[in-house]
Amino acid sequence: MELLAYAAFFLTIALTYAVICLGLNVQWGQTGLFNVGIAGFVGLGAYVSAALTTPDAAERIGGFDLHIALGWLAAMAAGAALALAVGLLTLRMRSDYLAITTFGIAVALQLVFQNTESLTGGAFGMAFIPRPFSGLQSEPFAFNVLNLALTALVVLVLYVLLEHLLRSPWGRALRAVREDEVAAQALGKNPVLLRIQAFALGGAIMALAGAVQAHFIGFIAPANYLPMMTFQVWAMLIVGGSGNNRGAILGAVLVWAIWALSGALISEIFPADQQARAASLQIVIIGVMLCAILLWRPQGILPEVRSVSRHLGHRNKDT
């Protein structure tokens, strides 16, 4: 039973990363927007939701004790607003500026999380974040399984909605802008507006993932939102298949499994005083796996499906 409880816990964390990957897939896989500030969006969602839903605390601002669902919605709004602000400032320029800006914002947000103790709890983090099905915490199996079902439902809803958007005229316009901006503009599309919309949607999804993860664990700290998280999510999307929502989910589960198993292996092999140094081997393992996947399947395990319209699919079969 304990093994099953841990498996449910592991899959829940993996699916929160799958949500982040779905957000990145909207930005990069569908639109070609290079976001290297993923950790900032995830952390913003986590802290906004935590501040709104935790009980009142004298030592910090916030603690409005709102319902978890309201915290998740507020996290999405905050992520979308941040992405919208970044998009308005940078998406009219070259993509290099977007990468630089998103990285800078992620670092700045991490410093804000760490130093504004009256708002975020500082380096000590925020505890007592309400957890779904908290009444079952004394029963780890039931608690983890129900949270797994809730997180899987979130992933499923996002997957269905994003697949519908992908096959809509809006989704096809995103791909047209990604492949040939000049041709898309000649057909009457507004590349800047489309990029801003996609970037805001991806930012909202990443922030939602941060909120879901925070409420499942019940505690957050600035150290959870370092640039390493950005590396992990990019590895997940590349391994799974950029441009494919199923690939994003598969890559998240696979890379998180390798990350968790390598961490457990390191803790078993190396003595306690060397484990901090040996933890860097996890990055090496992920890097080697990434190189192997790119050599074996350059477009990922589940490559992007080029025909996104059922009408185009039927036409291709007829010809």
From TrEMBL:
The keyword Acetylation does not apply. GO terms for cellular component: plasma membrane. It is a multi-pass membrane protein. It comes from the Bacteria. Keywords: Cell membrane, Membrane, Transmembrane, Transmembrane helix. The keyword Cell membrane applies. The chain crosses the membrane at residues 6-26, 33-54, 66-90, 97-113, 141-162, 198-217, 223-240, 247-266, 278-296. This is Amino acid/amide ABC transporter membrane protein 2 (HAAT family).
